[in-house]
Amino acid sequence: MARMPPAVNREGVCAMRKQIDQVLEAVDVACRKVERRGEDVTLIAVSKTFDADAICPALEAGHRVFGENRVQESQGKWPELRAEFSDVELHLIGPLQSNKSADAVELFDVIHTVDREKIAKALAGEMKKQGKTPKLFVQVNTGEEPQKAGIAPKEAVAFVQRCRDEHGLEIEGLMCIPPADENPGPHFELLRKLADEADVNGLSMGMSGDYQVAVQFGATHVRVGSAIFGVRDYPA
User: Fold this and answer.
1) Alpha-carbon distance values, 169 to 138, 149, 159 (Å)
2) pTM flag (> 0.90)
3) Residue 15 burial (CB < 10 Å; 0-12/13-18/19+)?
4) 3-state secondary structure of 110
5) How many of the other CB atoms lie within 10 Å of CB of 222?
6) Nearest to 74 by CA among 95, 44, 53, 49
């Protein structure tokens, strides 16, 4: 079972709680500006690249909603963590390959990155086979960036409908990652418009640098990593 490592003392847990509370307060402030309620926004603490020892303080501080980018990385830490913290809600927020669909359905409670027919079909088959129904979001490439995953905006509404009609999938909402060098507001506004057209309520948008803006555009889920866990040390 995963246990809080000796190196992480109560001061570490308190510091983590403070970081999380600061983000939640910022969400509340953004919500009040547009007459929304803070409790209507889910804070996903993005723990990608951080190991179990780094995640434990957040769990000990009481946070339970986490996001990961890669299935394989998640398999290396979350089953053991969940053995102790069974009420965790785990979100896949990174690109999904069809050959990882079975593992994704088994491990994740929410998948934010459905973006093509092959993935929709694979997930539908695995959900039926495993008898599990993770919540699903369709990822939209609002900036139409060739290097980025996600379906084109002009195809998004029709794709949501095909997911329902052809694959029997219930789509919870839409997700986007705006271009890093552009004002995120128009991208969040576009995603909200597409969600209205597709008749879905979920809007997974906003990260550490722009989650307050996303909240004012209607985000129901914000994906915040570095503002909680600190700067990531990516491999060279």
Assistant:
1) 11, 20, 11
2) yes
3) middle
4) strand
5) 27
6) 49
